[in-house]
């Protein structure tokens, strides 16, 4: 590997190419993991695309909650497509290299979609807060224009953070080694390859992660705190059950996304290990993206009915 690294460096000894570490020397293990990830990837793409299509084609779903859900599905598609193809290639191919520019692009899109999803989950929590705590003003306060603005802010924050973090990381000098002990160009894995003392850089990335991950999470906690207070004073059990059922899917998605993300990016550096980082990466890039459409479709009658109509139309068309 060191010989390859030296060939990938120019006269200034700045690494121009990286290479992903081999997952295992046992070919059968790599192949089985490849099949598993590929199936989950295809399931994620299909499920999220169907939800976005259901919103697009069904006028009955043109409400704030489903507008945000369609945006979440689009983010999930971009999120998985930014890393999983590279992950699959590194599992079964000997060509595991990636250029510095390609690595930077992958990091940008991964950060962009990930941070945008953090912000969008907060917007979805605010939507549920307005629906339950202020139902009489919900239609005016959560108008189409407001929903579009919240979505644009979420995408915009993700873009700015992605550009800032990527530019900051790749402004560092990389003089070798160039083997990335990960499935893709994730922030901690790339930062570990930078030359010299990177403690200040690691601290800056850690602070940025706290702000970008914790701030939306605190908004979610505040929204659900108000929701819980409102639900507890509802007179009828049916009303409480209905109010909580509209939030259960979102709460489960938030738990999966923030749970894995917080463990990955907010735990101390001393607790990081390549094996654990790879396991967590598989969870928050593949498993959660596959589970999200399943969670929403199984627990939401409107989504389930819209998906059934889409599938029935496809069957009739093919017949």
UniProtKB/TrEMBL annotation:
Keyword Transmembrane set for record: yes
Q: Which GO terms describe its cellular component?
A: plasma membrane
The organism named in the record is: Leptonychotes weddellii
Endpoints of the signal sequence: none
Q: Keywords for this entry?
A: Cell membrane, G-protein coupled receptor, Membrane, Olfaction, Receptor, Sensory transduction, Transducer, Transmembrane, Transmembrane helix
- Name of the protein: Olfactory receptor
Q: Which residues cross the membrane?
A: 31-55, 67-88, 108-126, 146-164, 203-222, 243-259, 279-298
Hey, which family's this protein in?
Belongs to the G-protein coupled receptor 1 family.
Compartment(s) = Cell membrane
UniProt GO MF annotations? G protein-coupled receptor activity; olfactory receptor activity
Function of the molecule: Putative odorant or sperm cell receptor.
Q: Which domain of life is it from?
A: Eukaryota
Q: Which PROSITE patterns match?
A: G_PROTEIN_RECEP_F1_1, G_PROTEIN_RECEP_F1_2
> Does the keyword section mention Membrane?
yes
Q: Indicate the segments forming the G-protein coupled receptors family 1 profile domain, all copies.
A: 47-296
Bilayer topology term: Multi-pass membrane protein
User: InterPro entries annotated for this entry?
Assistant: GPCR_Rhodpsn, GPCR_Rhodpsn_7TM, Olfact_rcpt
The UniProt entry lists the main location of this chain as: membrane
């Amino acid at each position: 590997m060191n010989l390859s690294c030296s060939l990938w460096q120019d006269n200034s000894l700045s690494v121009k190419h990286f290479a992903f570490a081999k997952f295992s020397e046992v070919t059968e293990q790599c192949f089985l993991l490849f099949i598993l990830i590929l199936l989950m990837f295809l399931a994620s793409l299909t499920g999220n695309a169907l939800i976005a299509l259901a919103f697009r084609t069904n006028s009955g779903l043109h409400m704030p909650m489903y507008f945000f859900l369609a945006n979440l599905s689009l983010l999930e598609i971009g999120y998985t497509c930014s890393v999983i193809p590279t992950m699959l290639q590194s599992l079964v191919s000997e060509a595991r290299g990636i250029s510095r520019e390609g690595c930077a692009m992958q990091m940008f899109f991964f950060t962009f979609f990930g941070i945008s999803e953090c912000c969008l989950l907060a917007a979805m929590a605010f939507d549920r807060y307005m629906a339950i705590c202020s139902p009489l003003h919900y239609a005016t306060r959560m108008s189409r224009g407001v929903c579009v603005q919240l979505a644009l802010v979420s995408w915009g924050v993700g873009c700015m953070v992605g550009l800032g973090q990527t530019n900051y990381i790749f402004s560092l000098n990389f003089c070798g080694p160039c083997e990335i002990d990960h499935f893709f160009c994730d922030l901690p894995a790339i930062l570990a390859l930078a030359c010299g003392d990177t403690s200040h850089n690691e601290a800056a990335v850690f602070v940025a992660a706290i702000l970008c991950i914790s701030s939306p999470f605190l908004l979610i906690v505040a929204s659900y705190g108000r929701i819980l207070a409102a639900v507890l004073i509802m007179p009828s059990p049916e009303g409480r059950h209905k109010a909580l059922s509209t939030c259960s899917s979102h709460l489960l998605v938030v738990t999966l996304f923030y749970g894995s993300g917080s463990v990955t990016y907010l735990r101390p550096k001393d607790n990081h290990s390549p094996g654990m980082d790879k396991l967590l990466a598989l969870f928050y890039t593949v498993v959660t993206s596959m589970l999200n459409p399943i969670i929403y479709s199984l627990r939401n009658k409107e989504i389930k009915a819209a998906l059934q109509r889409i599938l029935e139309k496809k069957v009739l068309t093919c017949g």
